[in-house]
């Protein structure tokens, strides 16, 4: 991980100079041009408001011990019950995801056999994890599959290099195929091309390319015979895998892809950029059948987002959940990272330096964070699929914090690194660096969690 200098001061400055929505949108657009990120680092010693930035379906979070998102009056109206109490019990006991869901957590190597770093994407099933192997940061060369049952990996395909300035973006899993797209962010033309490979592997197939507004991709997916995607201005498009032109799917004006076949009336990763992060989703559309379901957000709810079964949002400073039909309304314990539902029933929440996955059905929660020995810092990651991932991972050997201090003026001794028991505010000339020792990740696969939890 990269060196962080004076994290408390940096976070304070970031909070004081937080960009307006338009400026933030430009910042996220620049980040997107550099490709997706998936690492998350947290500090508990920050006495500032928590800052959350969402880009590429991945969360980059700075968390604070003192927060402004405390319970408000409206939160008291949310129904609480056994699932919430079960989750609170799990949190108090500090249970990790491996303890809560032992059959869904496995260890896997950080690198491929030839030394390329792995980046988890999502699950292919209960025992298979889709990965990219990257010779350099966010420049994937291969798609591989790691089998958590056998402990072995296999190559699905070698991704086309695409030429100078070409960057492959994300990947998405369909029933028969895996799709990804590429961009050339250094050129002024808005351009993208799509590629697919069979789930069992083989040579990649270049589906075609798009330009202009059609290249401003919000989310994407793949069916048996088409690549599908939504664009930032709204509307869902498709292109035949066997060749042909892009066309708009009828009836998708004002819709964005959530996860095929579902579309909604709010965008995905571009929420912040479009100023719709607080807008409520009130429509869910099945693009296979055209069936439309109207959703009624509870009074005072903001940022409501729904899967085919559940909705989550914020109400009075707290996270709330309900069924799509409005029933089974409840408070979600702790702080919700973002209003997104993973695997149709899970949300990401956190308390202090521990991030957890919370099951809306059973109320179980399991930690997904590698914590430093003093408990004041930690890190974890999530897969980089276009739709909500089913994979979360963290360093199997925990994390350490190295502190390096440069001597003050007039001192002769050189700066030396040492393991610091705390990432607390550093004196001038000191730096801290989060270190992840060992060769393995622990990986939580939501697809391996049984329906009964």
Automatic annotation (TrEMBL):
Taxon lineage: Bacteria, Bacillati, Actinomycetota, Actinomycetes, Streptosporangiales
Record's signal peptide: none
TM regions (residue ranges): 40-62
SUPFAM superfamilies: DPP6 N-terminal domain-like
Residue numbers spanned by region Disordered: 1-36, 69-99, 409-438
Protein name: WD40 repeat domain-containing protein
Low complexity biased stretches: 10-23, 71-84
Keywords: Membrane, Transmembrane, Transmembrane helix
